[in-house]
Write a structure and sequence with these properties.
Layout: H1 13-44, H2 49-87, H3 90-124, H4 133-145, H5 147-162, H6 167-190, H7 195-219, H8 235-267, H9 271-307, H10 311-344, H11 351-383, H12 388-408, H13 416-420, H14 422-441, H15 443-455
Length: about 450
């Protein structure tokens, strides 16, 4: 069965769904690495359980900052490969693949070295309590060691997304995810480890998924095939990848920094709220993966059709992505609303933690209704290689409103619910600003006029 989806011809409803669902499942599996860590240390480390659970949870925003930034920058590879597929430029596809491999490895090594040095300071800045800090530092330092392979996996997956194949990364990640769970149990229950055991398991499983994808790319008979002799920098292609990816990465950095500020405020409310927020985050992120998969589908489908000069199809893609996201999000919301407390018991049996966690779930999941609007609009713009504008607007909307809320409102009303209110407020602001940008830019109409002039 052919794994690459033909994005340029035929119906879009089923193809967008076939692209987005494996991508959503891939995101869910990546989050399960962290969720499995929290569940196992929370239930099988005895008296240290709550502290270990809080330690992994305190690292979640930091790891999210790193991984989300990597995924965002790798979107540059996704768009360049997709656009080049649309224009039939196999040489640029090949150069994009080889540049992505080199960049991922070098950037991963550089960030790992810096992270090893700064890990205690990073966590200290997050107001992590003293009884949690040693566990949190240990987990983060081990995670940093695995960054080169984590970065490489995400760039390899971006290559497959660019050619319309989201199934291959999903299959490989499923295998490594199962291995991750078994290693977690082996290290914690078998060898008596705590957070270091689950951190090592996460790194090893990422190494396996990265290696599998690399081997498949080396054996590919298409333009995405990796040839070790061609692993060299092509500055024109790399600049193009980074021109698209870096603004999106900067957007995610700012997004995560705002979340770190929120996490620091959560940490001031005590270990119960910390643990509850951590557990809830690892449930709600699954719904976010579903939503963001359609935005990435929008980017990739628009990228290929933009390259092929089919502007009418680009507009249809945005509308279909909106509608399918609404349906998928409604299903996710219903599932969490009715079974949220049951899911939280996977992480802890503490009733207080469960209630606070459920409160967070309800607030955040309702806010995601607003989030899906700007996510799809920004994905559409990136498909036309317009990356800087949505990034700047999102930074202003998301970060500006959240930071302002935390520093001005939270000190006056020092409650968990007030912190959570920053999310819907920031999403609504982003909807308005990115929506105005889309109406002003109108990329499909402008590109269509250019094509008409060229064809005269």
């Amino acid at each position: 069965m052919k794994k690459e989806i033909d994005m340029l011809h035929g119906s879009l409803w089923d193809k967008i769904l076939l692209f987005a669902l494996p991508l959503a499942a891939t995101g869910v599996l990546q989050q399960l690495f962290n969720a499995a860590d929290i569940a196992i240390v929370g239930n099988f480390t005895g008296d240290k359980g709550t502290a270990c659970m809080a330690a992994v949870g305190a690292n979640t925003p930091i790891i999210g900052l790193i991984v989300n930034t990597v995924v965002a920058i790798s979107l540059g590879t996704n768009v360049v490969v997709a656009h080049s597929i649309g224009t039939g430029d196999d040489e640029t596809v090949s150069r994009a693949v080889h540049n992505s491999v080199i960049f991922a490895l070098l950037a991963g090594i550089a960030i790992a070295v810096i992270g090893e040095i700064l890990a205690p300071q990073i966590l200290f800045s997050q107001n992590v309590p003293n009884d949690v800090l040693p566990f949190a530092v240990k987990y983060l330092r081990i995670y940093f060691l695995g960054l080169p392979v984590i970065l490489l996996y995400n760039f390899e997956a971006a290559v497959y997304r660019g050619v319309g194949d989201t199934r291959t990364p999903l299959i490989i990640l499923t295998i490594s995810g199962v291995i991750n769970v078994f290693l977690n149990i082996a290290f914690v229950l078998g060898f008596g480890m705590d957070v270091e055991g689950v951190a090592i398991a996460t790194v090893v499983s990422n190494l396996i998924s990265c290696a599998f994808l690399f081997i498949k790319l080396k054996k590919s008979d298409k333009s995405i095939r990796i040839d070790l002799k061609k692993l060299k920098i092509n500055w024109d292609v790399l600049k193009r990848i980074l021109y698209i990816g870096v603004p999106t990465g900067a957007q995610n950095v700012a997004f995560c920094i705002a979340n770190l500020i929120i996490q620091a405020s959560i940490n001031t409310l005590g270990i119960t709220v910390m643990a509850a927020s951590s557990a809830a985050f690892n449930i709600e992120i699954f719904c976010f993966c579903v939503m963001s998969s359609f935005a990435q589908a929008c980017t990739t489908f628009v990228g290929q059709n933009n390259g092929a000069g089919n502007m009418e199809r680009c507009r249809k893609i945005l509308g279909i992505c909106f509608l399918e996201t609404v349906i998928a999000q409604a299903a996710s919301l219903a599932l969490i609303y009715f079974f949220g407390r049951n899911f939280l018991t996977l992480f802890t049996q503490d009733p207080a933690v469960i209630e606070v966690g459920y409160s967070r779930l309800l607030i955040i999941l309702m806010a995601y209704i607003l989030s899906m609007v700007y996510e799809n609009m920004a994905g559409y713009l990136r498909g036309f290689e317009i990356s800087v504008l949505p990034a700047i607007l999102t930074i202003i909307a998301i970060c500006g409103s959240r930071i302002t809320w935390i520093y001005l409102v939270f000190p006056v009303h020092h409650t968990f619910e007030v912190i959570m209110a920053a999310y819907p407020l920031s999403f609504l602001t982003a909807d308005i600003m990115v929506g105005i940008a889309l109406l002003v830019k109108r990329p499909s109409q402008r590109n269509n006029k250019v094509l008409q002039v060229e064809n005269q």
